Amino acid sequence: QVQLVESGGGLVQAGGSLRLSCAASGRTFSWYRMGWFRQAPGKERELVAAISSGGKPTYYADSVKGRFTISRDNAKLTVYLQMNSLKPEDTAVYYCAATPRIGSSVATEYEYWGQGTQVTVSS
């Protein structure tokens, strides 16, 4: 099993940056594809970025390409999401999740989830 704990959320002005971290427990962390999802009030949960077990390839939603960067450090059992040029529409609860499925972008295929961290971008 994998347990996930997110951190790094907060309130930031538009144009600012935040870095989210997701610390995992369990020796099998490096086996899993990791994803960052977000969910805004009244909206469905969407995949923002994902990274394969070995670090490549990566996936980004069109809405965050060029602004967000996902990375992982398997030795530290941690996955990161660097968010730059933040916009008010990035406001959401951000979740990290793990799946054993190669190339998965579907929330239902992710087996393990963190509790989420709130990101609020003010205009």
- The count of β-strands is 11
Largest sheet descriptor: 7 strands, mixed
List low-pLDDT spans.
Answer: none
Strand content: over 45%
Mean pLDDT: 95
Return the structural class.
Answer: mainly beta
Query: How helical, in percent, are the residues?
Result: under 10%
Topology order in helix (H) and strand (E) letters? EEEEEEEEEEE
Number of helices: 0
Distance between the termini: 40 Å
What is the radius of gyration computed over CA atoms, rounded to a whole number of angstroms? Answer: 13 Å
In one word, what is the shape? globular
Q: What would you say about this model in short?
A:
With 123 residues, the protein is mostly beta strands. Helix content is 0%, strand content 50%. Strands 2, 4, 5, 6, 9, 10 and 11 form a seven-stranded mixed β-sheet that branches.
